[in-house]
Write a structure and sequence with these properties.
By secondary structure, the chain is α+β, with helices and mostly antiparallel strands. The chain folds into 2 domains: 48 residues; 40 residues, no CATH class. It is built from 3 helices and 5 strands; from the N terminus they run E-E-E-H-E-E-H-H. The strands form 2 sheets. A 3-stranded antiparallel β-sheet has the order 1-2-3, with helices on one face. A two-stranded antiparallel ribbon has the order 4-5. The longest helix is centred in the middle third of the chain and has 21 residues. The two termini are 38 Å apart.
Length: 116
């Protein structure tokens, strides 16, 4: 079983790179390059998860929710802040061929039925 943890790499003005794991407080690293920061955060995450396994309540799960804030700037300098899902940021991909097939099926009355 695999678990995924989002990792943020931030580039500072002085050239250093900070890395942290979203939703796990205390798991962070800093380095001079992005490659070194990625290696350091991998080591820090491995140590954090090993420490969790060593606790008396072994196999304790960490549950994290990811929310994305969408800020809309109005004309009257009014800010609107709302939440959007991660799927909305990824968008949809449709090829021209798929769009044409969908239009053709719509003109025919939808998807053809399958008879056994």
């Amino acid at each position: 079983m695999a678990t995924h943890y989002p990792i943020v790499l931030e580039h500072e003005a002085n050239g250093s790179v900070n890395a942290y794991v979203v939703g796990l407080p205390g798991v962070f690293a800093a380095a001079d390059t992005e490659r070194a920061a990625a290696s350091a955060i991998r080591t820090a995450l491995r140590a954090h998860l090993a420490a969790l396994e060593a606790l008396p309540s072994a196999r304790r799960r960490v549950h994290t929710n990811l929310r994305i804030a969408r800020v809309t700037y109005g004309r009257q300098s009014a800010l609107e802040v709302g939440f959007v899902g991660l799927g909305a940021l990824l968008g949809r991909r449709r090829s021209a061929k798929k769009v044409a097939a969908a239009h053709a099926n719509g003109r025919k009355g939808g998807r053809p039925r399958r008879f056994p």
